[in-house]
């Protein structure tokens, strides 16, 4: 038995010596090291040896296996490293293997940032339908029928009293119809205007609407909230102003301007030489709106605000034609 | 609205520059959108007199001129053939920018400099009408009338030295749509009194009432009709001042009578109309609705078809004007008009708006009536016009105003509690402060108190402020007069913490995953051609008043717009694309379960791939994507959002937009489909490249995704992996074989993956070999080899028995 072990050792060494291909090496492995190989066979044979000699034999066979395995591994490494052409050195200036890269649309990026700031201020998200009825889009928001204020928002109609919402404000109504104060929501969404398509206006755009109703909500607080938003979003050094405006569903109504961040308020093409950029409309919720949703205007006050996301994205990224946002040219999308 | 700075000064003292005024007006709610100085371009141009001329010694066509421009006499070389001594001319001084260069084909402007022309110095230029942008005559210099003063700047001479403010008037403020209206706001800003012109009418003895008769048949639509008669007018052009006032704000002068009515409109805001009185049958005015289908020719010589909801001004026989919108051609003021009737009425705003909308005819008059005119201003306006017409054209103002006023109203009072103002604004204003703020805009304390609350003060509202009806309206006025900027910007706010869990923004997570996986997000138009939206559903929602045919419906699938996006990118040579969009689709709905009855909206996700599977690289051979790439992406996505019980069910027929794909079911619910965009559909867009696309209902995906996560203890024992390959008939699907194996393997099998398909020499024709990796595990012990061997034996015999598959050694 010992003899056979030593013979196999010599034979294996001799056989391994000239092996030069992966296939031959594998044949060697099958012959000596596999489960049905020569060395495994030795263990089988050992079972028929005298019980007192088995421990010594076992040790010897194990040593043999370790030795052959070691030589085999060495050979294997040698073969693998010689398989690599030694004449061609590594050229690490070769480009790596890249994957396709994706991008988030600038409208979504802008909206995400606005959402992040307002949710941090305790606003939650609400949504509503784009196909709306006249009641929610206009009447409940204090636009009487045949009122010129409706001209501010050219409307696409679907059917009698059914239209494509012209602003996200109808969701204010839907939220207040379904819950009691306090209400603190922002409403992102797509809105439609039947206007000629140009570099400055598209037939649809996206808005974020905000609504806060509770006891004791003031205009002063509205200013503070929006200033905090503007400073976080546009930079802490901006100057701001609130000037009176008109929206049927808020009173007092205001528009918020900030100093043009492109020219630092000196006046440029984008701010039409005024040094100011209009960034949002806002105001105190009109008592008629509260009455419509059966909130008592003697008990509750509230504020609402709304901004156009495309306009903000355009200002932020220096985009001068709104239409490019909907062209989805990959050369454009990959810039963001 | 265009407001003349000079005109404004007729009614209120203004010390501030136009820029400063614009800033103040903007801050009180009258946004000045633009400041224009039409005379700006004639800076450095003056009037002059040609004193003497002589021939240029070195050029036949040039003349040397001495021109007196007031402050000095200039030597000017002139090339015009018509120059001669004694002419009054327009002279551009050195440094002036000449609006148009007549030697330049494009007529581009240029700046004058002191030049030597063929050896002779020239210190300016005598200009042609073309060069000054005042006409098309370029054959010679523009000659001004004899007696023109020298040394006047050309902008003054042309009456263009005014500054024009373009003001955006919000729809709630019709009272500010005039110079006096704006002057009232300016007066409030600077604490100045507004000077309303005094009326001094010289009436004749003949009473107007004897000639004109007015009947209002619908006092709801016409609560007041006031008229003045002026006899013996002489029609002609208006005096220069009047023409200048009107042109400065963009109103075209017509004749002296029409110009006066327009002047009064722009002065104090009330629309007027002048009729040729002799053309009114029986000298009568009847205000009544039109007959359905009646036709009428308006001033602009267009034939208009009327309906019974159109309020008309008629004479004894028929219509002579569309009330509040536009007069008629037949009774308009002409050169031969002698006697006129001045109409100054008040019409119902809603009725005027409906008529104006229906006719597509918006005029200065209709815009004011539909926003709400001043019911109590009609007589003042008529008197003012009559007085000016008399001053300008002569004529006789008949005695008395004819005033039919069936809709008399009591003057309006509105209550305001100071504490309410402070509650809304967050201010601490006293009752006195509030009263003095309101007094600035002529809102004063009325006698009496309203019943509720002792602090409740009643305020009398001027009749022109039709927007002030309730307490909150006065709160806004208080804020406006106090100044929005004076209200403290309060950074403290109370937050009532929410008591329900916010909805998780899973769509954002989904988007982030897609972007990380190499997809770019698309945002596309939701309006599209009917031909396309019908491919997605028969229930497409149509738009009643679309912008154009290609935006006449709402999309029923995101695939069409995605294909259009892909087409546009391919046109620019971008042929390797991975795109996605999350957006809404819209359908008519009969279930009655939708938010707005009859219409359903659904959030969809579409993913599309075109071109290469991997970016081309130096050791990767280019491989074009196919449906299995997309299926793999979907499987990965579903695993990412913890969806299970997913079925991909191949469809044999083509769909409207795709073919060769599969439907996706989750928990037995159809959530969408994938496939290859149909060739005939691609052909519509000239796309050769194959597009692999999927469209899924995001709402359903997220509803079925197991968001509630519970920890399961990790297995304590190692798993064992075995590979196995079967040769089976081509008609047996991978899934059939896989299910057979899984069924035979039993509960120890925890994972099974297909890793190889072989067809070729080693298998028979009509057969294929599929290789699977099987992972086994037990929850209570380490699996022994013999246990796994037993399972594998069972697998082999089941596959052989049920699918006639043989083990591939």
Task: Describe what you observe in this structure.
The complex is a heterodimer of chains A (336) and B (809). Chain A has 336 residues and is of the alpha+beta class. Chain A folds into 2 domains: 2-83; 106-333, 2-Layer Sandwich (BirA Bifunctional Protein, domain 2). Chain A has helices at 2-16, 22-33, 38-46, 54-83, 106-120, 134-137, 170-178, 219-234, 287-292, 309-317, 324-327, 330-333, and strands at residues 124-125, 131-133, 157-159, 162-164, 183-192, 204-214, 240-247, 250-259, 276-285, 301-308. A 7-stranded mixed β-sheet of chain A has the order 1-5-6-10-9-8-7, with helices on both faces. Chain A has a 3-stranded antiparallel β-sheet with strand order 2-4-3. In chain A, a hairpin with a 2-residue loop joins strand 7 and strand 8. In chain A, helix 3 (38-46) runs antiparallel to helix 4 (54-83). Chain A starts with a helix and ends with a helix. With 809 residues, chain B is an alpha+beta fold. Chain B has 20 helices and 42 strands. Chain B has a 7-stranded mixed β-sheet with strand order 30-33-34-38-37-36-35, with helices on both faces. The longest helix of chain B is centred in the last third of the chain and has 19 residues, at 785-803. Chain B is elongated. The chains are: A alpha+beta (336), B alpha+beta (809).
Q: Could you outline the blueprint of secondary structure elements for this entry?
A:
The complex is a heterodimer of chains A (336) and B (809).
Chain A: H1 2-16, H2 22-33, H3 38-46, H4 54-83, H5 106-120, E1 124-125, E2 131-133, H6 134-137, E3 157-159, E4 162-164, H7 170-178, E5 183-192, E6 204-214, H8 219-234, E7 240-247, E8 250-259, E9 276-285, H9 287-292, E10 301-308, H10 309-317, H11 324-327, H12 330-333
Parallel strand pairs in A: 1-5
Antiparallel strand pairs in A: 2-4, 3-4, 5-6, 6-10, 7-8, 8-9, 9-10
Helix pairs in contact in A: 1-4, 2-4, 3-4, 5-10
Chain B: E1 2-4, H1 5-8, H2 18-27, E2 31-36, E3 45-55, E4 63-68, E5 73-78, E6 88-93, E7 97-98, E8 110-111, E9 115-117, E10 120-122, E11 124-126, E12 143-144, H3 154-157, E13 164-168, H4 179-190, E14 203-207, E15 213-216, E16 224-231, H5 240-248, H6 256-268, E17 273-276, E18 284-289, E19 295-297, E20 303-305, E21 311-314, E22 319-322, E23 326-327, E24 340-346, H7 349-359, H8 364-371, H9 378-393, E25 396-399, E26 402-404, E27 413-416, H10 418-425, H11 431-439, E28 444-449, E29 457-460, H12 471-482, H13 506-516, E30 520-521, E31 527-528, H14 530-536, E32 553-554, H15 559-571, E33 577-588, E34 599-610, H16 627-640, E35 646-650, E36 658-666, E37 669-677, H17 679-684, E38 691-697, H18 698-704, E39 720-729, H19 734-745, E40 749-758, E41 767-776, H20 785-803, E42 806-807
Parallel strand pairs in B: 14-25, 15-18, 30-33
Antiparallel strand pairs in B: 1-13, 2-13, 3-4, 3-6, 4-5, 6-11, 6-12, 7-8, 9-10, 16-24, 16-25, 16-26, 17-24, 18-21, 19-20, 21-22, 22-23, 27-29, 28-29, 31-32, 33-34, 34-38, 35-36, 36-37, 37-38, 39-41, 39-42, 40-41
Helix pairs in contact in B: 5-6, 6-9, 7-8, 10-12, 19-20
